[in-house]
Amino acid sequence: QKHYQKAWDEAKAKSYDLRADAIPIKHAKASRDIASEYKYKETHEKQKGHYIGCRTAQEDPKLAWAARAMSLQNDRIYRKAYHDSKAQIHIPVDAMSVQAAKECQTLVSDVDYRHYLHQWTCLPDQNDVIHARKAYDLQSDNVYKSDLEWLRGIGWLTEGSVDVVKAKKAQEILNERLYRTRPEEIKFTSITDSPDVVQAKINALQLSDV
Q1: CA-CA distance, 120 to 192, in Å (whole number)?
Q2: Residue 92 has pLDDT above 70, yes or no
Q3: Total-model pTM
Q4: What stretches of the chain show up as alpha helix (H) in DSSP?
Q5: Does the keyword Repeat apply (predicted)?
Q6: pLDDT (average), residues 132-148
Q7: Closest alpha carbon to 63 in 72, 53, 54
Q8: Which of 36, 56, 64, 94 is found 20 to 30 A from 50 (Cα to Cα)?
Q9: Alpha-carbon dihedral of residues 161, 166, 169, 171, nearest 10 degrees?
């Protein structure tokens, strides 16, 4: 047995010589390529019949959904910088709008609108001081109300005011006569060529002939 397998053992010890164009090698390569091609096209083969009937890409629901999702994603990315920076507002202190707002605030401010007269620092029980204080209070009140003097004696009509207009609108809404039309006020005219009217005419003619 040892002499019988001597040549085989010596060949195994040296290594093996397998040619690249051997039939088993070619068979294995072909099987590998076939399996790789099948795996590569497996998803395509499964979905091959699902797209029948879509003439354009817009009619395909999957493609339309993908395009819509892509547009939304692009719009979100496009506006991301704006949404991140829209709350961070930097206005220069000398801007025209800021200056106009400051002047408007000065005009409507009650502190700058009223000019109080000076306060007396003498004895409060002196008669001349009491008389002068009353005179100055009257003068201050006159100065304070001077811009309203031109309104004194001017009449005002309530026609066109907010409350009158609101009352008129409410009256129109609640008016039953304008909201509904009574059935007896509708002019009813029968259609002369309706099927029931035509049949009645034919029956009347037949009875008349009889």
Answers
A1: 100
A2: yes
A3: 0.19
A4: 6-14, 23-40, 42-46, 61-78, 80-85, 96-108, 110-113, 127-144, 162-174, 176-179, 195-209
A5: yes
A6: 78
A7: 54
A8: 36
A9: -110
